[in-house]
Amino acid sequence: MAKNRIAASFIYTLDDHKPIRNGFVEYDDDGMVIAVGECEDPASEERFLEGAIVPGFVNAHCHVELSHLHKKFRKGTGMAGFIDQINELRDWAGHEVKTRLVKEWMDKMWADGVSAMADISNDDSSFPVKAVHPMYTRTFLEVFGSEPHMCEGVMKDVRELNAAADAAGIDAAPTPHSCYTMSPQLLSASAAAGLARGYLSYHSQESMEEEDLIRYGRGAMYENRKRSGMSTPPVTGESSLKYFLDRLSDAKQGPYDEHILLVHNVCLLQSDIDAAKDVMKNVYWAVCPLSNIFIHNALPPVPMMWANGLNVVIGTDSLSSNDDLDMVKEMYCLHENFPQVPMNEILVWASLNGARFLSKDDVLGSLTPGKRPGLVFVSNLDCNGSFTAESRSERII
Asked: Is residue 151 part of a domain?
């Protein structure tokens, strides 16, 4: 099999913590990395790119089936206002339109260098695309239901959806959405179903409205639920993450070896980190910075997360709360707002940690000989190899 070689100003291998300046990657026709190293003479390289070569990205939180909502939402409405828009607009498109747009955006993500995705689904409109697409996906079948009597019916429906995913050859499992859209019974039942398959994804501490709802039984989200005639979760006086841990223990006694993804973490506190790490042995923490800015102009406490050595991953969220599904833009947002976090670390979050969450790090996530992570070229870097507002990515292989 032919051996190919490409070189660039920076090679981010991610299997150590320092990029290679003026480095090369050798790979075979199937995309398997053969070797990486420093160029003896960059000027003599046949293919030398001014920029960085990085492993394929892992979009660790996406709702690709909501691609029909692109450019339809107002920004800065807060979570309560965002939920109102979701309820109003999410069903405007039929199954065929949704499937077509899923393919368009998955193709774009693939071309931009996304090799794998942890995706949220509420129906089967993404299944025909995922079943044949080169991008690996693990699908979390998200459930909602604020009334206790709904639990049995909702779980029956999601089991049927899971059977359809299984039949299509898609890795999938039920998962709870969040504290504010579910009865305690449904939260525990769906968490139990996800844990039984080894993976769980959960929207956690996305806004202060969520925290006010759980801690104090007040605020915009509480009023939104009451106006709609919906039951609200119990008031605990504790954070919404600690409420989730309580519901999780009702589903299954910890400690938990399963891979658990906590998504958003905008209102995360040190006490929440300590409580989660005490019982979750494979917990990952997703940040979706552009979505958080879109909805309520806030960002998670990234320096604290980094200082705690958390397994941070990066997602784009959906086109209802983002203008694009561009991982480079998410990374630049993090770099711009938290310059103390090294670019290499941000890339670990965008590639290797996501692969670890999906249990695909034997193949994806780093430019390690023997892996097939995908090779991605990122252009328009600064002199230190960090991303800029003009940085763009494209798949090499």
From this structure: yes
